[in-house]
């Protein structure tokens, strides 16, 4: 995503001339001259009375030329008052686009100035719904050819109606518009057409129409590809770039003969043509369905593909030829049909397109993008190779395919009207991706993992006073940077969590019923999130007896959607009293945000007592209530399977009973709730609601635990202890304690796998085997360290890698941590020569594990050298380094030092800035670090933090909480570990 439109906007202003000079120089080249002539021919066909003209850049003025239609440079008048329509970020509603014809020609070789460019022409037919003499259409970083002194040509489509003449035209970089003022008005209920031709740079900036590069057989190959969401379609061609401005698109791509051109529609015809003296190929695509601009995609490559027909849908997987030849697309191809069919049933709606292409790109900012009919992925998210890919890589591929395919209906067929509702789009896909992946791999129990990956993950940020509600108001989201900020853990993971809760209390059938009618009503159109509530309510009403809700869907969901945070529900089993309270990680933090519900939620509580569970949830509607059925002297467990988005606290007696249950027969507690008990207690302790010692007691049974989820939950929480204590005297006893806990698990997997020769059968066991090795090695277990060192050494000497793909990440990391420059260098060479991205990824992360500061510093330098580390991977590599106790201060210094450069060059990346800031600061726990952080915020206030803005405040809040936590807990934790290891 374009994380920081504000900076690119600044750059745009000073690049205006510079980049134009480059383009205009290129005009002197034969090819470019030919281009202009050709474009002029097209133009003259459109409007014969104008003369072909040479392109000129629009002046970089803030003010419009009021009356300068004939001069090349419109006159600059007084500075624009900020209230003009072109100073507003939202389009006026007077013009409604209906149909575009877009031809684009990306050049995969640089021009004589070394610049990669694309040229294009585009016409858009629109309906006028209100008389107006102004046309605003989005355009960013495009240079227009002039016709009769103007940047566009306007014609009428309605018979008998003349198009008004253009009075002036200019570009408005700040709001990213091409502006046309007319001499007279466009008339209501008439149709017009706007035609432009233009050039743009095919830069390596991962946004809009951009270029990706890779090496094949010693040769550099270039791919032209797109990433439009949220606001970069306007960087490829002028368009009404808002999600509700849906239209039909006729796309044509011009490309070198022998290359493959792809777009959202099926290829209609591909012919050899001569364009501007170049012998090229022209591929015309079928008209798209009515769709939003952010879902468009245009790609030209030399890729190979595999495909099949599943129920009349053409399914294809595209990737670099060697990757396709090696079978790396096979897994994705095998699973796509299954998942697509699953969603057809889930939504009761046929897949709306005749084809579904998916393509793996060497350079891609997000993980994947749901362009309608042409989904784009980073390579690690689509390509699978049994020899190189771990079970985790495989799961990611299955879930990400499911996520993007889910969007084909939810998001693409029915689109939210404006970006403020993004959380519903992404949250929904992030929930049902688990359902789709479960269909593809029914033996994995993958649906359980939403608790670790989403619920627990987002609890950590949503427990801060600097969090924010899921829903934003439409008027508050205007600028591209504000839109980009919405792609955060709240939208994705909290969205997914509350929708899962909703689907649970409505029952899946009712949820599906509501979805079905919602999709039907708004197909090819737009909706707001309350429209979904309406349809779900209708489904509830039709099944009232089965669901038995006392409150409306809207009333319940408002409490989760309109206020930030979540409650901790306290249950007193001696009295049957329940209460709820806004859960704050730092109880002293001050919540300034007012909530319309006063931080009270309508909470569905699924619970059980000593193994027996009621069918219906208990609803906690107020701050407090009493439920006599919860009065008990046996153990009571609430929030079964963590379906509810809240934490649970109990009276001391019940806590003791639960801890006893873990210690005597942990399996009486469902596996997800064992993970919950650990996560809830550790976090309640951090919030000073229960003593830390109680949290530590939930780990005592772990030597008997074999399941993945509780172990992962424990490791995640103990990771915080490592972060806080690995530079203090707590470290020793803590290591000793954890080694004791993990040793059994380590040997368990040794036995299960014939002394590490095989891997366990089950997906979750495979994951937990990795947990066992990483924690055993981390705690210094000799056998573990010897094992991984030997494996790695064997690889170094024999040049044959026999390490199982599942174990590679942890083995590489531990071996590199234990080794020196030789190991590092070997791994670096393997990284550079890796033929599959998932192997490169494992090495890239392991390279950050070295304990040698000079290697880490050099590696940090590499992260900003795109020839060594791809731009898409830069910020995550810095975060890997910061995860290392030795690397953390180096990474922090590095990021502080280079912030403005990183910010301007690495503005993309779906979550990159927030991840980067959170990553380099998560260990912070001292006054000094807090001071540095505040200083960092201040010093860079002019540069800004883009999508990381919130992360800066969250980091400050977290640092303060950490400081207090250490002061309060260090002594008791130290004593507890001491006594636990001496027991
Ligand atoms: N629509 C997003 C991709 C995206 C993210 C575009 C940010 C622009 C800005 C896509 O559907 C998505 O959510 N991708 C996720 C993967 C998913 C499995 C969570 C991603 O890219 O990480
Ligand atoms: Zn998504």
Automatic annotation (TrEMBL):
Cofactor: Zn(2+)
GO CC annotations on file: cytoplasm; extracellular space; plasma membrane
Biological-process GO terms, alphabetical: peptide catabolic process; proteolysis
Positions of region (Disordered): 48-88
Membrane topology: Single-pass type II membrane protein
Active-site annotation: 404
GO-annotated molecular function: metalloaminopeptidase activity; peptide binding; zinc ion binding
Alphabetical UniProt keywords: Aminopeptidase, Cell membrane, Disulfide bond, Glycoprotein, Hydrolase, Membrane, Metal-binding, Metalloprotease, Protease, Signal-anchor, Transmembrane, Transmembrane helix, Zinc
Enzyme Commission (EC) number: 3.4.11.-
Domain Aminopeptidase N-like N-terminal: 96-295
Residue stretches making up the Peptidase M1 membrane alanine aminopeptidase domain: 331-560
Residue ranges, compositional bias (Low complexity): 52-81
Enzyme class of the recorded protein, top EC level: hydrolase
Domain named ERAP1-like C-terminal: residues: 635-958
Residues under site feature: Transition state stabilizer: 492
Localisation: Cell membrane
Transmembrane is among the record's keywords: yes
Amino-acid positions noted as binding Zn(2+) in the UniProt annotation, renumbered to this chain: 403, 407, 426
Top-level taxon of the source organism: Eukaryota
Cofactor details (free text): Binds 1 zinc ion per subunit.
Family classification: Belongs to the peptidase M1 family.
Subunit structure: Homodimer.
Protein name per Swiss-Prot or TrEMBL: Aminopeptidase
Source species: Solea senegalensis
